Amino acid sequence: METYSNYNLFVILxxxxxxxxxxxxxxxxxxxxxxxxxYTTMHVPAVPTDPAYxxxxxxxxxxxxxxxxxGFVNCLIAAWTVDALGRRSTFRLAAAxxxxxxxxxxxxxxxxxxxxxxxxxxxxxxxxxxxxPIYYSEVAPPHSRGLMAGAHGCCINLGYFLAAWIGFACxxxxxxxxxxxxxxxxxxxxxVLLLVGTLFVPESPRxxxxxxxxxxxxxxxxxxxxxxxxxxxxxxxRELNLIVKQLEQDRGxxxxxxxxxxxxxxxxxxxxxxxxMIAIGGQNAGILVINNYNVLLYESLGLTGSMPxxxxxxxxxxxxxANVVRAATSDRTGRRTALVYGYAFTMGxxxxxxxxxxxxxxxxxxxxxxxxxxxxxxxxxxxGTCIDPNQFTVVSEIFPSHxxxxxxxxxxxxxxxxxxxxxxxxxxxxxxxxxxxxxxxxCLGMTSGLALxxxxxxxxxxxxxxxxxxxxxxxxxxxASGETGEKDGAVTAQHAETAQVKQ
Length: 503
What we know:
CATH superfamily: MFS general substrate transporter like domains
CATH class: Mainly Alpha
Low-confidence stretches: 446-503
Number of domains: 1
């Protein structure tokens, strides 16, 4: 019987420090911009009406642009390291670099040092954002993958949640640089915990089988999915059997189609395009533009002092709760449908919020500001319950195992590429055209959900193989060739090659 053990949950929780590190590393810039002493340390004005504030805009844009540009490059690096070094070694590499980057970031004494530190911190974030969903999908049993793989999105949002509240608390140390240095120093804590966590989590069984270490893989599968009512661990043996046979077909697929088949075979190109559109579409909804600049946004709505940080913290709290709810129900309600409705919902709420921000710019009253804030909160509920956890799960599960690391790395490069553009432009665009910059995301949100209708055609509703269909000496799983999904409407099952894309 398919099940997961307490050890399986333990593994997910420990490895979740990688996702937590990802989220916190992405989020810390948002509350840093709300700390008055940050601007003093960087020798730039903090007040938008200051004639020299253009220098501040340049610094803010560069801090985000460099971070996401470096993250883009390191998504590609992660696509190689997860296969070449293994999942755990990749985590350790990211943690070690994260310790260095976080230390430099909190110790920065000028703009140049801070920007270099941002680039260093982006390296492990780019690695973990790719490596973690791959690992989750490979240690979770098929029908619990949405719950367990959803831990990636949830823990990323937990990182945002913690960064926001730590930043709010540190505001009251505003007379010293502790206010912005301590939140940046916490990056090191998560990196250290990730490094320690790698001592307690197992290597991916799939990666071990790729290295002909089947006995080790079986031992891990038995621990992960042990069922007390099945002392012989029949499910784990069947799972290993399917992994072995799928990898045999994968090797044949690589031999027949070459290592570039992700780009040369039509079915894989379509999957890659879909994954890119999902990753980019989530960012085109404007989520990080709001989050990374939320303090500045709330200040533009008339809030002062610690209130922008407080509202930002509450906003992130709601986003985190929404992610947890979605992860818990993902396997029952389907992922494609949630993404389609999510794009429509977030687009509608973002359009209304943008209009209200525009009205406040014309008539600055508390009523318009409050209404705009309410719709920003409605927006994050829709994003958290429908888009955020699902995008990582879908991107990691729609590719066959022999292409997964490469494909996920390239797909999530799209996420960083989109954010590099939007976050680099925001400070300058906001200074030039104000609230009208948000109209870009209102328009882009209309197109983000369209590609999701292709999932039915690409992957259908038929699973090529199922664990229950395979005795211990079962046959190989179909679906490794480029014809999978094109002819049969079938999707290669991913964890032990058994799961289908949830509709």
